[in-house]
C-alpha cells in the first residue's frame, strides 16, 4: 500500500518535506520503532478518541500511553476510545491500526503531547504497516499547528 491519499495530499498542499522509510511488517508502534531502527520517543502514534462533539486524535510518542483521565480533564470532556468500525470508516485509505497522526487531513480535532516537540525529527505511520514518514520536528509541528498542545502521555514503565 502507498502512503494514505489524504495524508499525501495534505502534506503536499502544505509544502511539508518528508522522506519515506520502508521496514518489515509490524504489528504495533513499539515493534515499528524496533524494526525501523528509530527511537521510540521520536515515533508519533495516533489514538482516536470521541466525545459528544465528535472525534479527537491524540498524538504522542510511541513510548507513552494516553492518560485518558488527564486528557479528559484538560479537554473538559468525557473522552472514550473510538471503535474499530469507526476507525475503519474514518481512515478508509489506511490499513487497520496504521492511522497517521494527521487528523486535520481527516477533518478531526487534534491534541498533541508536548514531548514530541523535544525531538529533532519525527517518524510516523504513513497508512500501512511497512512505511514510515520521516520529517523534521519543525515540519511536524507545522502539521500540528491547529492541534492543542499539552502533556497527556505517561511512559509505559511507570506505575
From TrEMBL:
- Domain named YbaK/aminoacyl-tRNA synthetase-associated: residues: 23-141
A Pfam family it matches:
tRNA_edit
Q: Where is coiled-coil annotated?
A: none
MF terms from GO for this chain are:
aminoacyl-tRNA deacylase activity
**Which domain of life does the UniProt lineage start with?**
Bacteria
PANTHER family named in the record: CYTOPLASMIC PROTEIN, MULTIFUNCTIONAL SER_THR-TRNA DEACYLASE PROXP-Y
Put simply, this protein is called YbaK/aminoacyl-tRNA synthetase-associated domain-containing protein
Q: Which organism is it from?
A: Aromatoleum aromaticum (strain DSM 19018 / LMG 30748 / EbN1)
Amino acid at each position: 500500500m502507498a502512503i494514505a491519499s489524504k495524508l499525501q495530499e495534505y502534506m503536499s498542499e502544505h509544502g511539508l518535506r518528508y522522506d519515506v522509510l520502508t521496514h518489515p511488517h509490524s504489528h504495533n508502534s513499539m515493534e515499528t520503532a524496533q524494526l525501523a531502527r528509530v527511537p521510540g520517543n521520536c515515533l508519533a502514534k495516533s489514538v482516536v478518541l470521541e466525545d459528544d462533539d465528535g472525534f479527537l486524535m491524540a498524538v504522542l510518542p510511541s513510548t507513552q500511553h494516553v492518560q485518558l483521565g488527564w486528557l479528559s480533564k484538560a479537554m473538559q470532556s468525557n473522552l472514550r476510545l473510538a471503535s474499530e468500525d469507526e476507525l475503519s470508516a474514518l481512515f478508509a485509505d489506511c490499513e487497520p491500526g496504521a492511522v497517521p497522526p494527521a487528523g486535520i487531513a481527516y477533518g478531526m480535532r487534534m491534541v498533541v503531547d508536548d514531548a514530541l516537540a523535544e525531538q529533532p525529527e519525527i517518524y510516523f505511520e504513513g497508512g500501512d504497516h511497512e512505511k514510515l514518514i520521516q520529517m523534521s520536528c519543525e515540519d511536524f509541528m507545522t502539521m500540528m499547528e491547529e492541534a492543542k498542545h499539552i502533556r497527556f502521555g505517561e511512559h509505559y514503565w511507570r506505575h
